[in-house]
Model the fold of this input.
Amino acid sequence: MRIGVFCSGGDAPGMNACVRAVVRRAISTENEVVGIQRGYQGLLDEDFFLNVKGEPRMTLRSVSGWSRLGGAQLRCSRCEEFRTEAGLVKAAGILTKHGIDALIPIGGDGTFRGAVDLMKHWNGKVVGCPGTIDNDLIGTDFTIGFSTAVQTAVEAVDKIRDTAESHERMFLVEVMGRHSGYIALHTALASGAEGVCIPETFTDIAGITEQLRVLKARGKTSVMMIVAEGDERGGAAVLQKELAATGCPFSTRVVVLGHLQRGGCPSSEDRILASRLGNYAVSALCNGATAAMAGVCGGANTLTPFRETFKEHKKLPADLIELLERLAM
Ligand code: F6P
Done:
C-alpha cells in the first residue's frame, strides 16, 4: 500500500511520535508512506514531505528523533476549502493521481468528519489516530496530547498558586477545551484546585460565591478556580465579573493559558500512546479496516467507526468531579 499520513486541526504534543510509528511500521511491512504537509490544506496543494533525495516518500531516517519533538513536523491546518464539495472532489482526484491507497489522519473530530466526507468521493481506506489535547473523542480513553497539555497546565497553576498565596488572592485560570471539560477537570484535580467550571456541569455563580465564603471562614488564603474556555457561562473573564457582582470574598485575577498548552515536548504517556496508535493504525489498514479510529480503551487496542467518535460529547467521569468537590475544603 501507499499510505498518506498527515496531522490536522490543532496540533497536539505526540503527533510526531505517531507519524514516526506509522512510517516505521509501514516500511517494515513493505508499505510506502507519503507525508502530507499542512493537513487537508496541504493535500489540496499537493504539498508532500520530501526526503533527502527530494522524493515525496518518507524513509526510516525521515522520522529520526521525532518521538521527543513538540508541535507537528508535518505542520497542521484548519481547512475551509475541504468543507466544500468541490474541495472534496479535488482531494479525491489528487489522491488517485498520486496512487495513494490509504490515509492515516491524525487529528480530532473535525479531521474525522472530513475523512467521512472524503470517503464519499474516494474509495481508499482510512484509519485515523486521535490527536487532540481536548480528549473529547469517543473510542479511546485518552487522545494524543492530552497528558502533556494537562501537565503543562498543572505546572502553570502551581506557579500561579505561589503568587496567589503571597497576596491572598483567587485566580481564575482558563484552560483549553472548546466543548470539553477534560483538561480543566484533570488540571484541577492534579493541582489541588478549589473548583472547576466546565461545560458538562451547571456553573452556579451564587453557589460558588457561597462556597468561597465558607472556604475563607475556614482559613483558606488562596483559591484556584480552573475554567474551561467552553464553560456555558463564558470564559474566566466573564466569570470574574459575575462573581464580583455576587460579592466574591476574594480579590481575583484571571490567567488564560491558551496555546501554551499545545506546545512543548510530549510526556512519556503521550509518546507511548502515539507510538502504539500509529503502529496499530497501519496494522489495522493492512488487515482491511477502514472508516475507523484507532484507540486504546482499558489497555486494549480498539477500532471505533469515525461516526461514533464524534456522535456525542465524551462524558466526564462523574467520580472525578465528586472527588474534586470532596477534597476542595
Ligand atoms: O481542539 C484543540 C484546541 O486547542 C481547542 O482546545 C481550542 O479551543 C482550539 O483548538 C483552538 O484552536 P485554534 O488554535 O485554531 O485557535
Remarks:
- The first helix runs from residue 15 to 28.
- Strands lie at 2-7, 32-35, 102-107, 125-130, 169-175, 195-197, 223-228, 251-256, 292-297, 300-305.
